[in-house]
Amino acid sequence: MGIIPSPAQAEKISQTPPRGMESDLSKLANSLVTKIHVLMRISQIYDSKNVALHQFIKESLETINALVKREGAFSLKIIKDDFFLNDQRMRYSVEGFTSFKYLLTQWKKRLIGEVIFKSQVDERTLREFIYSLINLEEGREENATLFNEQLASRDVTSIEVNPLELSEEDEEGFTLEKEDPREAGKKVFFETIGTIKEVITNIKGEQHADIRKLKRLAQKAVHLVVEDESILLGMTTIKNYDEYTFNHSVNVSIYSLAIGKRLGLSKKTLTELGITALLHDIGKSKIPREIVNKPGSLNEEEWALMKRHPLMGVEIVLNLKQLGEINPRMVIGIFDHHLQSDLSGYPKLFRKQGVSLFGRIIQIADAYDAMTTPRIYKKVPYTPEQALAIMLRERTVHFDSALLKIFIGLVGIYPIGSLVLLNTHEVGIVYKPSHDPRWLDRPTVIIVDRDKKGDVRKEVVNLADTVGGGHYKRSIVKTLDPQQYHIDIAKYFL
Ligand SMILES: [Fe+2]
Ligand SMILES: [Fe+2]
Question: Separation of 362 CA from ligand 2 center, angstroms?
């Protein structure tokens, strides 16, 4: 529900296109956000009758009533990550940023998206409003209705609220839908690699690291994975030897999201899982490069240091400025991603406890990506099916068997990026696993053909396709090692 603009306002809106706010209005609006921020903070310290509140309430009333006088009535509304005062986007000063962020977070938590000041407000009204707001239960959908009922029961008629519209996720989804999903996938993939690189570099240099950007990218990745996981899974075939750390974080995140999707986790939980996976090895940024990238085996001392990376990761995450974006299960996921299902991994625990869900998912994703990527100490990696076979063999010690089963179902018998020989003597690259469990051995493949210049993309075929009489046109005979055939698999996914 919006508000009815005053005649003067209506005229103003119809005559002028959307533009920046006039400076005195902008000042008042910024002051309003700061005042409400202060009031919300103070109301958590003092009870509503406390005299110490009087001065703050008085100052806030001056701002609110000045706005009512000027605008007739006004609404302060959240759209996506911005505040709008009477449908005009607010600009924030550097000093005002903390207040804006606080209000945005606190209102969103309580699912309140708009506050309308309909007429002049008095001290009692403002006290009622602030305390009702602060006492709202977080995440309760009926909050706006309950809030309005509460205000009405206390004879407050000058203030009204509306629920939060359209979540951030929906907004992201909306913008992505218009794009070609494959293009969107590429963009998210490379942007995330760039961002994680930035975060790691900043942490190394003890500088401020922006986690919110990672969160936004994780949300986009979640949207893509929910729509069609094969796009981002295809990107994991890009095994960048030089930038292993960044690539690895992103790949682990993609595999983790795909497992999480199969588990039916909510978009919110998936986003948290995605960020946790992106940050799972962040502790390694505090370990000297020579040790992390050492070609030979580590000595006892180096290995002891290496084993501290989960704990160091926890420490880094807990010291992040935007700790608000991180919740306990994300911290625990970083802590126990090397614990292993029989708790034989590290860090050593004083008390036996199970590995968290995030930890168990990341372990599988981590092992698979590490095994299938060339490393300085193992230049020829395992093929996808070799890696899966090893993981299956070691499942009772290292992995959660149920989750491993899900993972294998997800990457298929022939994981995305596998090189396969067909009964037609053609060579193909697995492009997309079949969604139908009956055809796990019949993925969509790209038939690759070589001309004088090298490999060229020939044709995308679905191995579930049949010819007359129900015979399959093509079937997989066996998998091949791409290293031996000198085929750059990743090229076919870009
Ligand atoms: Fe790790
Ligand atoms: Fe890792």
Answer: 8
CA gap 68, 48 in Å, rounded: 24
Which string of b and e fits 346-383 if b means at least 16 CB within 10 Å?
beeeeeeeebbbbbbbbbbbbbbbbbbbebeeeeebbb
Distance 127 CA to ligand 1 centre (A): 50
C-alpha distances (whole Å) from 333 to each of 4, 130, 149, 233, 478 are: 49, 37, 41, 22, 37
Query: What gap in Å lies between CA 118 and CA 392, rounded to an integer?
Result: 65
Rounded average pLDDT over 104-112:
90
Residues, beta carbon < 5 Å, ion ligand 1: 281
Kindly list the protein residues that place their beta carbon closer than 5 angstroms to ligand 2, a single-atom ion. Answer: 281, 366
CA distance 247 to 192: 9
CA–centroid distance, residue 382 to ligand 2 (Å)? 16
* Ligand of minimum distance to the alpha carbon of 311: 1
Mean pLDDT of the chain: 84
Element (H, E) at 259: helix 244-262
* Residue for token pair 């990672």: 214
Tell me how far the alpha carbon of residue 279 lies from the centroid of ligand 1, in angstroms.
10
Q: How far apart are CA 268 and CA 120, in angstroms?
A: 39
Q: Count of residues for the chain?
A: 494
CA 268 – ligand 2 centroid, Å: 23
Ligand nearest to the CA of 335: 1
168 φ/ψ angles, rounded to the nearest 5 degrees: -60, -40
Say how many Å lie between the CA of residue 106 and the centre of ligand 2: 34
CA 287 to ligand 2 center in whole angstroms: 14
Query: Is 174's pLDDT higher than 50?
Result: no
Contact predicate 103/36, CB 8 Å: yes
Residue 308 confidence class, pLDDT cut points 50, 70, 90? very high
Q: Which DSSP state fits 379? A: S
Tell me what the mean pLDDT of segment 84-112 comes to: 82
Distances (CA, A) of 236 to 173, 193, 370, 415: 22, 12, 11, 11
Angle between helices 211-227 and 244-262 (to 10 degrees): 50
Extended beta strands in 111-252, E state: 112-117, 159-163
Per cent of the chain over pLDDT 70 is: 88
- C-alpha 367 – ligand 1 centre gap (Å): 9
pLDDT at residue number 8 = 40
Q: Is 57 exposed, middle or buried (0-12, 13-18, 19+ CB in 10 A)?
A: buried
Q: Which of 422, 417, 393, 392 is nearest to 493 (CA)?
A: 417
CA of 332 to the centre of ligand 2 (A): 15
* pLDDT band, very low/low/confident/very high, at 14 (cuts 50, 70, 90): very low
Centroid of ligand 1 to alpha carbon of 363 (angstroms): 8
Query: Mean pLDDT, to the nearest integer, of 76-94?
Result: 82
